[in-house]
Specification:
The protein has helices spanning 2-19, 25-30, 34-37, 41-46, 52-60, 65-70, 75-78, 81-89. The protein has 98 residues and is mostly helical. The protein is globular and about 40 Å long. The chain starts with a helix and ends in a 9-residue tail after the last helix.
Length: 98
């Protein structure tokens, strides 16, 4: 039951992310794209090892993590304890954000 509920939330979250719209010009210029982090959602919430695609995309968004943590849409996942585990497994230093 718990796994199916998590899966349901994950699917709903991904649909929400895709329906939010396009990046603002300033976000596109900075290279930040929260959708790239969605490749890691399964690993964050299910305690499974991250895929190579997840790690590659996480490394590409490393400079954006503090901004994404504050985002009301995606921040909850990055504040989840699994996010630090995934970052460590990918060799990404999880930032201390103010």
């Amino acid at each position: 039951m718990e796994n199916s509920l998590r899966s349901c939330y994950m699917v709903a979250f991904m649909v929400l992310l895709l329906s939010v719209g396009h990046l603002q010009p300033t976000e596109a210029q900075s290279g930040c794209d929260s959708v790239q982090l969605s490749w890691c959602l399964q690993s964050i919430v299910s305690n499974t090892p991250p895929s190579q695609d997840c790690c590659r995309r996480l490394r590409g968004q490393q400079a954006c993590l503090c901004r994404e943590i504050r985002d009301p849409t995606f921040g909850g996942y990055l504040r989840h304890p699994g996010a630090r585990r995934v970052a460590t497994a990918c060799g990404v230093t999880f930032p201390r954000c103010n």
